Amino acid sequence: MRLRLTRTIMILASLAFAGCGEDSRLEPWQPGSGPKPPHVLLISIDSLRPDHLGCYGYAKPTSPAIDRLAADGVRFEVALSTTSWTLPAHAALFTGLFDSTHGVTGNHLALGAEHETLTERLRARGYETIGFYGGPYLDAAFGFAQGFDHYESCMSPIGEHAHADVTGPRTLAAVERRLARLSGRPLFCFVHLWDVHYDYKPPAETLALFSSDDVDGLDLSGFDSNPAIHEHMSPRVRDRLIALYDAEIRSVDAQVQRLVELTRKAIGDEDLLIVITADHGEEFFEHGKKGHQSSLFEEQVRIPVILVRRGVWPKGRSIAEPVSITDLAPTLAAAAGAGANWRVQGRDLAGVWSGSGLAPSALLLELLVDRNDWRALRTDKEKVMRARLERGDWEAGYHLVRDPREKRGAGREEAWVVQGLEQLQEKLEDGAIVREKLGLKPHPHSYSSELRQRLGFLGYTDSGTNAGTKSGTDAGTMSAPAKK
Ligand SMILES: [Zn+2]
């Protein structure tokens, strides 16, 4: 008992406070009450692999606008989501907590009132809070509207297949309309851009930048259920598929540019903090699967993280230390003066350049889908992973310097793998303690008929267990690499 109490105290003491203020109350900013905190533009681009962006080394011209932002700010070379699908990743983005701590790990679960979100923190600080989203997992039913003065769906009217929905233009129009009537308070504008998510339906003129070979008219629509898209497709088909994905990125890159322009126009020359990130990556058969939500390998969990704050934060800097999507909420809260006494598992990334440093942290990855349970822990050089799959258990360690593509998994004969798996277990137990102490509970949400229909279009069920399974990305049939 005493040991558990001691450990609990240690865990809670180690939780980051997303700011150094002594006062636990958040003082709303008012004119004359001190320097105006920065306006914040947080852009989450669904399914965006960082290695398909120029600023992360990609050779094709997918991202001129994002590359300019990276040159204007700080780029984190190794950034990870907490998982490989939309709902828990965004819950982590808004709470600064890993998945099994915030608990929104299945599509029947939502954030509850006891989850304190970044948006609520910023509103308490006096911010005007507006949010826009283009995919069904950002629906208010999942708790994401908490703290927003205005939270708007930019999805197509019900009836269209959500994967095929092109929501970017509608999102830009909605943001522009709302930016025209700002109050003058500090602004928090969250925008979820959906179109990089499959199905890939870029504008024809954008696709022409990346491919002129239409593979004799082969139809590559319907990514997750299209039988033409499989592990052994020809290089020609694969090139066309990648071109479709890249063209979507280029198309969304232009939307990012427009969002930045609209925001700058709305706030004048006042301090603006811009964040470019994603919820997860995308697999093109690197480990035998397509899409996401089927493993925790790098291609599914790496995300871009770019922070820009002109004249205040560094310009053109790259940071090699691994960071997590859980670090973003505490970073933004601290910059806004809204971080005091907020218990989060993420860290304030500004510590890297402010001199206070960044507490080293092994980053937790989790995926609970159907009856499959994936967990991983990643440091700068190593990653251990364990999976409890329907067809049996599996575990491995990957040395990411020698084996960045995670092709040669090591087993328990290696001491570092044993140690890593023990640390993974400890991290999970620590998270459970945090969850208990924060009083976080599971919150089943009730589907509206519209949301039920939209999720049905995505291939999900509402069986009341964990997230449903998309056809073609069934973790249960994941061919995990053999142990070595
Ligand atoms: Zn997503």
In short:
The chain has 484 residues and is α/β, with parallel strands linked by helices.
Note down, in words, how this protein is organized.
By secondary structure, the chain is an alpha/beta fold. The chain has a single domain (36-364, 448-471), classed as 3-Layer(aba) Sandwich (Alkaline Phosphatase, subunit A), CATH 3.40.720.10. Helix content is 29%, strand content 18%. It has 13 helices and 17 strands. Strands 2, 3, 4, 5, 6, 7, 10, 11 and 12 form a nine-stranded mixed beta sheet that branches. Strands 14-15-16-17 form a four-stranded antiparallel beta sheet, covered by helices on one side. A two-stranded antiparallel sheet has the order 1-13. A hairpin with a 5-residue loop joins strand 8 (283-284) and strand 9 (290-291). It is globular and about 65 Å long. The two termini are 39 Å apart. Mean pLDDT is 89; it is low at 18-23 and 461-484. The site of zinc ion has 6 residues, from loops.
